[in-house]
Amino acid sequence: MSFSEFPPPPELDPGQDLPHLRVPPPGPASRSWLVRYAHAAAPMGPRRAPGSPASTVVFARGLGSNVIDVDGNRYVDLAAGFGSLLLGHDHPAIRRVLGLQAERLWQALGDVHPSDARVALTERLARVHPSGDGQVVLGQSGADAITAALKTAALFTGKPGVLAFSGAYHGLSYGPLAALGLRESYRAPFAAQLNPSVRFVPYPANEAALGDTLERVRFELARGDIGAVLVEPILGRGGCVVPPSAFLPELRARAEDAKALLVADEIWTGLGRTGSWLQSASAGVEADLICLGKGLGGGLPISACVGRREVMAAWSRDAEVVHTSTFAGAPLACATAIATLDTLSREQLPERSQEVGARFLDRLQRAGFVARGAGLMVGIELGGRSGAAVDVGRRLLGAGFLTSTGGGAREALVLTPPLTIAEPLLEAFAHELERCR
Ligand SMILES: Cc1ncc(COP(=O)(O)O)c(C=O)c1O
Predict the structure, then answer these.
(1) Where are the domains of the chain?
(2) Which residues is 98 bridged to in the sheet?
């Protein structure tokens, strides 16, 4: 593999380098770590077809848009921690704040004796709600934020049902797993332990599908037991499916008529990933509950369910009821979350995501790819064959590009690079993808 045809563009920042492979991945060091891992880690995940080459490497370092593996291979990271590294690896603002907070306080006592960092972050997030005056439940993971939202909806409406969508992914703990529409194999073994009042309707991938989806939404809501309508404003793991522009406003109206809460799962789409702070708000919708996670902590685990004040009041209506955990909203993650919000805003990264993402999408489409998305959340359809994205992803890894897959059959390539990525790296990727055809 040669990179000589991509002469390094001038003045690339540190962490914005083109790939450099010392050995074909996975190299000997990665293989050796992976043998140890395979022995100690429970065996889960997709089965590799017998004889197909390994496509996993072991990360050792990260900087900006680059990852170095244990063999010293340098990659361009277009997966960025499943979309969680909005600022890339090891951003100086995050590193600085992490150091400062580490010298002050690592753990507080949840809501009982909160840290100052937790109070400050909660105030910031309360203003993220389109009402400007929301209230917040902090968590550790996306699944945790979804669980908080589903509990809130059940408390507020008194209705146990959830309306969810085919292709959707909201996390794998039991609350969100019940609403998982992406892959039946993730749900089936546990189905008997899941909320039985979840009903699925198709996610509309285009205008032609919208009417049928809305009709099915109306039908399900008419049954009267749905308290939460849970939706990704753009399907993420489902393959970056962008719905027609009327979808979210129509859903909002129908949820309201049925006295159900609209829950926008912005764990992937939010905080600039799709080119705006909230994809639901840019679609013209004020959701009752908004779930944030992934990029919020700048690489540390933290999530939030941000709701309308009247809705959140449901937590105090009856006997004591709480949603919390030991490390939810821990001080280090609260500090890095504040630094993340500051940096996104100061460096105008949502705006950059929109501009750079539009140019990138256009570049891919002009090259003949079926590419879709918003901002720097891009899906590339690879013909519908099951596992097509796994094969292409393996070839891209061999050229120094880390990607992820999407869609129920892993038929789409999903790209969620840092919002700070240098454009020449995207161009180099597009060039490489053309060679994979
Ligand atoms: C849209 C969406 N919601 C929720 C989750 C779950 O987040 P976590 O893996 O942090 O539990 C994910 C994870 O990929 C996601 O993409």
Answers:
(1) 28-77+348-435, 92-346
(2) none
Going from the Cα of 371 to the center of ligand 1, the distance in angstroms, rounded, reads 22
Instruction: Report CA(291)–ligand 1 centroid distance (Å).
Output: 10
Query: Is the pTM higher than 0.85?
Result: yes
Any bridge partners for residue 370, and if so which? 381
CATH number for domain 28-77+348-435, candidates 3.40.190.170, 3.10.50.40, 3.90.1150.10, 3.40.50.970: 3.90.1150.10
Query: pLDDT by residue (tens digit) across 380-403?
Result: 999 888 999 999 999 999 999 999
| 1 — pLDDT class (breaks 50, 70, 90) | very low
Say if CB 251 and CB 262 are below 8 A apart. Answer: yes
- State in Å: Cα 38 to ligand 1 middle: 24
Choosing among 3.30.572.10, 2.40.50.100, 3.40.640.10, 2.30.130.10, the CATH entry for 92-346 is: 3.40.640.10
Token reading at 150:
């589903």
Asked whether the CA dihedral 270, 272, 277, 278 is positive or negative, the reply is: negative
Can you tell me the distance from the alpha carbon of 278 to that of 272, in angstroms, rounded to the nearest whole number? Answer: 7
The amino acid at residue 284 is G
d(CA 355, CA 272): 11
Which of the listed residues 183, 267, 280 should we mutate to test ligand 1's pocket, taking the one with most ligand atoms within 8 A of CB?
267
Identify the DSSP state of 304. Answer: E
